[in-house]
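Usage

Read records sequentially. Each one opens with the input sequence:
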Amino acid sequence: MKVYTKTGDQGTTGILGAKRLKKHDLRIEAYGNVDELNAHIGLLNTVIGTDLHIWVQERLFILGSWLATEPGMEDKINLPKIETKDMEWLEKLMDEMEAQMEPIQHFILPGGSWEAAQAHVIRCVCRRAERAVWALHEVEPVQAEIPQFLNRLSDYYFVLSRWLLKQQGKSPVFWIPEKK
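and closes with the structure output:
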């Protein structure tokens, strides 16, 4: 099978089911952001290489599959779902990392190391994906766990950015506003 089909050359793309949507449709925007998020996680994982990031990427494929499916076709295609236990797992990981760090009192400037900075990029792209999913949800219902998972995932990558710096023996740079 060829990668190119030329069916999108007129500004539409197919989703699971028989429907074609404009390439700027909210649904396409939402799963495109999830796809970009997955690529950024893959980039970070080439450096720190953990099975956890593979687990996250697999969940993002589940999430993206739901977003790339015509509403009402989900049960016919028999897609796996994002579940509450997925968010609980992320929460457990965050709690474990935070237990090893001092509480923060100020905002953190993204950076400190390549890995920590990339975790911040992931956090930002994740938030964008979450906003896109919520915009789609206003037009067509989306499985409730999808934006919840993205919300928790962005929190996880914020905590991971701090934890990576701690593991590297570095400190985050805090933003402390100047008092006038």
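Summary fields computed downstream for this record:
- The first helix runs from residue 26 to 48.
- The first strand starts at residue 12 and ends at 14.
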